[in-house]
Design a protein that fits this description.
This protein is of the alpha+beta class. It is built from four helices and five strands. Helices cover about 40% and strands about 15% of the residues.
Length: about 130
Amino acid sequence: MAKMTLEELRNLREAKKKEMSQRDGSAKSAKIIIGMGTCGIAAGAKDAFDAFLDELSSHDIKDAKITQTGCMGLCFSEPTVEVDVPGMPRVIYGNVDGKVARRIVREHLVGKALVSDHIFDKPAADIIK
């Protein structure tokens, strides 16, 4: 592996600090939770996670916390993402690849409109036996 210069190390540190700040939940109202259980990872959740980070950064959105969780129980629609934005309904999106993740940031977080062609939902608690 090639040696890095001090300047390259500093740039890498700043890039990683910026990336990690999206995971800090203090004083952030919007939440993005990505299902990264085995099924989600196999379906491409890591690519969706990276796309969310990139798109949030490109729109300079600092008021959104992005985290990961285990399986959401919707394996047929992986990767799945739960989005909770104040003043809007909490939504679970399915089949979220990098392209859809970018749409969710642009349309849901920025434009305050649901990405209706990717909305899935958990089964109601009273239906599960």
